[in-house]
Design brief:
single chain; 0% strand
Length: 239
């Protein structure tokens, strides 16, 4: 591929044009000779200090590069890709049959090139397939682990909610009696004051004592109710 004929111009604002000459040549070759997609090109040539995007590379190819006549990548592919992207953005349809036809054509070209590479380098191809099969195995195990983790999470959610509801219910019932008992004591003491059978100072002293003792009693009863509820659920799970 003659890079001088491919590169029409370089623009400083273009992130692709700012690449060095060797990388730019390899990028053009990967696109026009090897048929790599824009997504793959972004992954291959993107750097932390160089922000590449699919739209940026596509724009560079359209404005600053000329496709060689012998390139296996048809101009129809870019046009179809852009039409599909634009149609999706606008919510409009696009020519699906044309896109499928050009995609099938390019896929056949990629398969032919891979077949030639395999015939030319059988040992390297064998090692590549071994790595591919290992990667597929790892991927399958990862997918299985994700599915198992998701199932455990769903089972946990189904199990823990009823337990929490039962514990909360038992705790509320345990403190309800404390509130009733202490409320009755406060009313009785108030009536004692109203009937002048108790001094106001004595009333405030008893009320202050109750304010200190109530939280302790509530905490004790809630812990007891929670422990009993947990024991009940453990016994139910064991059976």
């Amino acid at each position: 591929m003659d890079e001088a004929k491919v590169l029409k111009m370089r623009e400083i604002r273009c992130s692709v044009c700012r690449m060095n000459d060797q990388e730019l040549l390899e990028l053009h070759r990967d696109r026009f000779e090897n048929g790599l997609t824009f997504e793959v090109l972004v992954r291959k040539y993107g750097r932390p200090e160089r922000n590449l995007s699919e739209s940026g590379i596509r724009r560079h190819m359209r404005r600053h590069a000329a496709e060689p006549e012998d390139s296996p990548i048809s101009e129809v592919v870019d046009t179809s890709e852009e039409r599909a992207t634009a149609g999706a953005d606008r919510g409009a349809g696009f020519d699906g049959e044309a896109l499928l036809a050009t995609g099938t054509k390019n896929l056949a070209g990629v398969i032919d090139r891979l077949t030639q590479e395999i015939h030319a380098h059988p040992q390297a191809a064998g090692r590549l397939f071994d790595k591919l099969f290992k990667a597929q195995g790892l991927l399958a195990r990862s997918v299985k682990q994700v599915d198992e983790a998701r199932a455990l999470r769903e089972e946990f959610r189904k199990t823990i909610k009823p337990i929490i509801d039962r514990i909360t219910s038992e705790a509320i019932r345990s403190i309800a009696s404390v509130m009733r008992e202490n409320g009755k004591k406060v009313r009785d003491n108030f009536m004692e004051v109203a009937n002048e059978r108790m001094t106001v100072d004595e009333f405030w002293s008893r009320l202050s004592t109750a304010e200190n003792e109530w939280p302790k009693e509530v905490g004790t009863r809630m812990r007891t109710a929670t422990d009993e509820a947990l024991k009940t659920d453990e016994a139910r799970c064991a059976n």
